Amino acid sequence: MSELRKDPIIGRWVIISTERGKRPVDFPSVAIPSRGGFCPFDPGNEDKTPPEVFAFREPGTEPNTPGWRVRVVPNKFPALRIEDQLVRRGEGVFDKMSGTGAHEVVIESPDHGTALCQLEQPQTAEVLKACIQRMRDLKKDRRFRYILVFKNYGEPAGASLEHPHTQIIATPIIPKRVAEELKGAEQHYDLKERCIFCDIILQELEDGVRVVSENKDFVTLTPFASRFPFETWLLPKAHGSAVELLSDGEIDSLAAILKETLGRLRCALQAPPYNFVVHTAPCQDSRLPYYHWHIEIMPKLTKVAGFEWGTGFYINPTLPEDAAKYLREAALDATRPGGDLCPSR
Fold it and tell me: Which pLDDT value is given to residue 335?
């Protein structure tokens, strides 16, 4: 029978449709074909993007030339513009402000066809370090209240370019979804003087049924009230409210488990399109006792339709416990390029 589950952080209800009970093989394969043609992110085309603002490069190479390993550039078609002055105004009951912010692209590798989980671990760590370095720099701008790191992989997930990349957007307001998490987490802390995320981690590690993998610093799990089939969260075991406070050693550890988690999803679901988002503390609140930064990974396996839009409920046809089991059973095959993953069966 179906059941409703309540998210313990923000109080959102989801429907787990156990009668549908979808396994990995029950989802249609969504192939991501190569588009071919010109790509502005390929080496040699550096003049086709805005000038880089950060890069990991081979010694002796000049900015905006080949020789980079990870490259960060402003988005050529930004959602928000850093040049705009922040102006707030109203029209009767309506509020609006200028489109002030920042929008950057982290080009993960010179290799056009290599997914993030297929990179060698040091390269994955450099991608994360580039994101965190840019977050640290953007936080210095007092106009910005929040910085979101996110990735769209595959056209069904919103990727407009095939070359693997991650994006960073700084906004002058705290996004509603993050504000809901902050409010729910603060309410739990006021009541129990504990972080709700820390409580979840302790319980999940004890129960084990929704844990996908862990290392000394991080744990990957499928949330109790998952909105989407195979939704996966990656959380630090030690309390921390801001991802940009990680040390280099912790970033290396994060790279290892992120690469593994994305690889398990790639294996179990035949390289699905997906989104991931990094939820972290607002710019001026880096050390909150009640909030816990984390990464949410959401494969694009189902569609949000009328019921979801009309009610705010999500219908998930896969039990989170089953999803975690399937992902745990994905095994590393060192013979595949880049340490890809394949099923153990």
Answer: 31
